[in-house]
Amino acid sequence: MNSVSPLKQLGWKPFFQQQLSLDELNDCQPVKVMAVHRSQIEVSGESGEESVLVSGALFEDAAERPTVGDWLLLARESRKPVRRLERSSLFKRMAPGAKQVQLIAANVDNVLIVSSCNQDFNLSRVERYLALVKEAGCRACLVLTKADLDENHAPFHDALKGHRDLPVVLVNALDTESVAPLRDYCRSGETLALLGSSGVGKSTLLNSLAGTELAATGGIREDDSKGRHTTRHRALYPIVDGGLILDSPGMRELALADIREGLEATFADISALSEKCRFADCVHESEPGCAVQAAIEAGELDERRLHNWRKLEREVARNSKTLAESRASDRSLSQLYRSVQNHARANKNRT
Ligand SMILES: Nc1nc2c(ncn2[C@@H]2O[C@H](COP(=O)(O)OP(=O)(O)O)[C@@H](O)[C@H]2O)c(=O)[nH]1
Ligand SMILES: [Mg+2]
Ligand SMILES: [Zn+2]
C-alpha cells in the first residue's frame, strides 16, 4: 500500500510549507500546476485534479505567471488562485522572437538531457542545456537513446571526456529494463524534467519509466498536422511508485536568457584556467602565457568547448541587456500609467 500523502508525492516540501501564513493554512489549499493552457491551468492537489482560470491581473509580469511545476495557493471555497509560492528552481529561455523570457518549468529536482546516439548528438547543445540545469541548481544526467540502433558507442565516450561530472547513460528508450538505471532520478516526491530535441525519444522514455503509455510518441515534426502522435505541450505526468516527469515538445530554439551563473558553472574549467593566464585581460587567442591555449595544445581542453563558451557568453550578455532594457521600459510605462491615473483621480476629486 502506498502511504505517502498526495501532496508529498507531488513534491510538497518544507521549503513550500514554510511560505504559508497562518491565515493561508486555514483558508487556502496548495496545488501543483500540471499543465498550462492559454488562460486555464490544470492543477493537482489533495482534492485531486481540477482546472482553474488564471487572470492576467494576478500575475502581470511574464516571469511571474504560473508555469508547469509551480505551487499555487487556491482559496479553499472559491477555488480561485490567491498567489504562487516561491520556486525552488526555475527553467527559462528567451521567448522565440520576443524580448522577454519564457518559462519552461519550475521546482524541478532532476533533469535528463536527452539526445540520440545517431544524427542528433551535439556536444555544444548539451552544454547549452547544461547551463540551464546549472542555473536552476538541478542534478543532471545525459541520456543517449537509440543505443540499440548503433553499435559503435566509442565516439560518444570520447566526446564526453571533458564532462567528467556529467553521468552518461546509454539506453534503448523502448526497453523498460534498459531505462531502469534512470529510475533513481524520479523517486517519489521528486520532479524529473526531460529536455531534448524533437524525436530523440523523450516521450518513449517517459512511457518506459512509467511502465504504461502516458504520452503519445513517434512525433518527428511538431508542426505535422496529419494527426501524427506528438507532444504538443509541456505537462507533468505522475508515475506509479515514483515522482513526476515533465515531458515537453522539443525546443527548436533554446536561446539562453540572463543566466550568467549557470553558464559560469558549466564552463568552470575554462574560468579556472584563465586565472592562470599571464595577462588579466587575456582573451585566449594569441597572447603569450595563455593557460587556455596551452591546455588546448596539450590536448586537455577541446577547442570546440572554448568556441562554444565564447558564443554562449555573447548570447547571455546580449539577452541580459535586452531583458534589462525591456524591464526598464515596462517600469517607466507603468509609472506613466500610475501618474496619469493619479492625475485623473485628483482632477475628479476637485470637481
Ligand atoms: N530503436 C529505438 N527507437 C527509439 C528509441 N527512443 C525513441 N525511439 C523512437 O523514436 C521516435 C520518436 O520518439 P518520441 O519518444 O516520440 O520522441 P520525442 O519527440 O523526444 O518525444 C519513436 O518512433 C520512438 O519509437 C530507442 O531508444 N530505440
Ligand atoms: Mg514527445
Ligand atoms: Zn588566456
Short description:
Keywords: Cytoplasm, GTP-binding, Hydrolase, Metal-binding, Nucleotide-binding, Ribosome biogenesis, RNA-binding, rRNA-binding, Zinc. With 351 residues, this protein is α/β, with parallel strands linked by helices.
Oligomer: single chain
Q: Could you name the CATH topology of the largest domain?
A: Rossmann fold
The figure for the number of domains is: 3
Helix-and-strand structural type: alpha/beta
**Low-confidence parts lasting 5 or more residues at pLDDT below 50?**
220-229
**How would you name the CATH homologous superfamily of the largest domain?**
P-loop containing nucleotide triphosphate hydrolases
| Span between termini | 71 Å
InterPro entries: G_CP_dom, P-loop_NTPase, Ribosome_biogen_GTPase_RsgA, RsgA_GTPase_dom
Domain EngC GTPase: 106-252
Subcellular location: Cytoplasm
Enzyme class: hydrolase
Task: Provide keyphrases for this structure.
351 residues; SH3 type barrels; Rossmann fold; Ribonucleotide Reductase Protein R1, domain 1; globular; binds guanosine-5'-diphosphate; binds magnesium ion; binds zinc ion
